[in-house]
C-alpha cells in the first residue's frame, strides 16, 4: 500500500508547490507554480481553502474523481485526507490555496469559533460553487491577505491577517446558505431519500441488530459528510438531523402502540432501544405521555 503523504505545516506545503514561505503559519499559495505530480493521498496538518480558478480535475476524495468549474472552493481541515491511490497519472495543480495553521488563530475570535465552520469537515464533492459576484469577494479577501503577507511582519500583521481570514469564512457561510437554497430541488431529493432510508430502516431487522440510527449512519448511507448532511437538513426542515430522526422514531412508536398484542418492552426492542426504560423516558419526553398512558387514550 502506498505511504500516505503527510503535509504537517505551511512551510512544507509552500515548498512542495514552489512558493516562498512568507509567514510560517499562513500563506496564499499559487498552485500553478508547482511541478506536475502524480496523484496520491495526502493528510493535512492545517486548514486549507482551495480556490479553483479554472476548470480542472485535480482534487479527489475517497475513490471519486471530481471536476471543478471555475470559482469553486474546497475546504480541508487538519487531519483530513484527500486524494486517491497513486495511479501513475500526472497532473498540473491549478488555482490558489489559502493555508493557515491552528497556531495562527489561537487566542483569537476565529480560534474560538473555528469549529462552527462545518464546511472544513465536508467532503470534497460538497464543495462551494461561487457566482461571479461571490468570486470577486473571495478574490478580494485573498488579495488583502496576500498584500499583508507581502509587508514586513509587525505587531498588527497577525490581527489583520486573521481578521481577513475570518471575513472570508463568514462570506463562505453566507454563500453556502445561498447554495442550499439555489439547489433546493437537489436538497429535497436528499430529504426524500432520508425519509425513505428511515422508513426502510425501521421496517427491517436493523434496529434489533445495530440499534437506533445515528446521524453519521444516515449521512454515510446517503454518501454525505455528517456535517453537510446535518446543515442541509437544518436548512430544509428547521430541525437538526438528530431531531428529525427522533420525531420519525416517535411517529413510528405511536403507530406501534396501537398493536396491543405487543408489550411496551417488545416495541422498545423493535425500535432499537437497548433498555425499555430508555424508550419510555424518551416517549414521554416527546409525546407528553408514557407509552401505557398513550395506549389508554386510544
Structural descriptors:
298 residues, alpha+beta, Jelly Rolls, Arc Repressor Mutant, subunit A, five-stranded antiparallel beta sheet, 13 helices, 12 strands, elongated, AraC family transcriptional regulator, transcription
Kindly describe this structure.
By secondary structure, this protein is an alpha+beta fold. It has 2 domains: 5-182, Regulatory protein AraC (Jelly Rolls), CATH 2.60.120; 185-297, Homeodomain-like (Arc Repressor Mutant, subunit A). It is 49% helix and 15% strand. The chain contains 13 helices and 12 strands. It has helices at 10-16, 102-105, 109-113, 132-150, 157-182, 184-202, 206-210, 215-221, 226-237, 241-256, 264-271, 276-287, 291-297, and strands spanning 5-7, 26-30, 37-38, 42-44, 47-52, 56-61, 64-68, 72-76, 81-82, 90-91, 96-100, 128-129. The strands form 4 sheets. The chain has a 5-stranded antiparallel beta sheet with strand order 2-11-5-8-12, with helices on both faces. A hairpin with a 2-residue loop joins β6 (56-61) and β7 (64-68). α4 runs antiparallel to α5 (157-182) and α11 (264-271) crosses α12 (276-287). The longest helix has 26 residues, at 157-182. The radius of gyration is 24 Å and the shape is elongated. The relative contact order is 0.09. Residues 54-68 have low confidence and may be disordered.
Oligomer: single chain
Query: Which superfamily, in CATH terms, is the homologous superfamily of the largest domain?
Result: Regulatory protein AraC
The H/E string reads: EHEEEEEEEEEEHHEHHHHHHHHHH
CATH architecture call of the largest domain: Sandwich
Number of helices: 13
Q: If you average the pLDDT, what whole number results?
A: 87
| Strand count | 12
Calculate the terminal CA-CA distance, rounded to whole Å.
61 Å
Structural class: alpha+beta
Helix content estimate: 40-55%
Query: Which percent band covers the strand fraction?
Result: 15-25%
Q: Quick one: overall form? A: elongated
Which regions are unreliable across 5 or more consecutive residues at pLDDT < 50?
54-68
Number of domains: 2
Instruction: Give, in spatial order, the strands making up the sheet with the most strands.
Output: 2-11-5-8-12
CATH fold name of the largest domain, please? Jelly Rolls
Query: What gyration radius follows from the Cα positions, in whole Å?
Result: 24 Å
CATH class designation of the largest domain: Mainly Beta
Largest sheet: 5 strands, antiparallel
Protein name: AraC family transcriptional regulator
Keywords: DNA-binding, Transcription, Transcription regulation
Pfam family, one: HTH_18
GO molecular function, one term: sequence-specific DNA binding
